[in-house]
Every structure is written in structure tokens, then in C-alpha cells.
Amino acid sequence: MLRIVLAVVYARTLVEGSWIPVGAFALAAASDYVDGPLARRAGGPTAHGVLLDSVADIVFVLVACAAGVAAGRLSWIVPVAIACAATPYLVATLRRSRAAGAPARAYSEVGHWAGICNYALTGLVAGSAALPGAWWSPLLSVASVVVIALNLAAVGMRLRG
Length: 161
Hints:
By secondary structure, this protein is mainly α. It has helices spanning 2-14, 20-41, 47-70, 77-100, 109-130, 136-160. The longest helix has 25 residues, at 136-160.
């Protein structure tokens, strides 16, 4: 739930040019990193927890990237590509968890790297707001192409089965 709140904080403060989005990104990334080990210590992940974790990640990166679009830092294609990859992933995770009667992520190597790059892009966008400079534009453009390509590749892999 923290990541969903942080998504709103990130989006509301991105255009101000402050360090707050950087802090929101850092907290979101840290919470994503530690929630798995915490769940395992507490007796293992639940189907609800696995789905909520995925939804929180997707909400954070989609809201953050949409804020990046609104701020003129990203193309609208970025959040569209992420949403195109996230939707079938969530559906597959839900189906697998129901079929197995236990938490079962619809993991793919390409999707995993897409998720990492999605988060990294939100960090770059936050950095571009906190430390303005002309060099951010080409960096964000290249990072956006990587994110779009990885997310669309994840969709293609999922459709191929």
C-alpha cells in the first residue's frame, strides 16, 4: 500500500522540480526490495499478497510515468507499453494462483527485466526534475526506448506462450 501512496506523492511533486519525487522513488524501490523477504519471514507469501505486490509495482510505475508524460519528460508510449505488459501479467498471475491454490507469479525473465527498467526509468525521471539539465533528454529518450522494447517483448513472449 505504501507504493500506491508514494505514486501519488511522486506525481503531485514531479513538476515542482524538488527532491521529493526522488525520495518517493527511493522509498518505493526499497519497499519493493524488502517486501518479499518480509513475507517469507512471516510464513510465506499469500495469493493476495502476491497480487497486491504486483499491483502496487504497476500502479507506482504507471502513475510515475504518466506524471513524466504530463511534465513533458516522457512519451505517452511509455505508460501505454507498460500497461500492455502489465495487464496480461496480472491476469496470468491471478489464474496461476487460483489454479495452484497458492501464490504463483506469472514470471518471465523478459518481464522481470522490464519491471526493473520500469522502476529505473521512474528514478531517472525523478532525477531529471531534481537536477535539471539538457543531458536528461537524450538519456530519458534512450531509457524510454529500452522500457518500451522490453515491455513489448514481454507481451510478445506471453502471447507466444
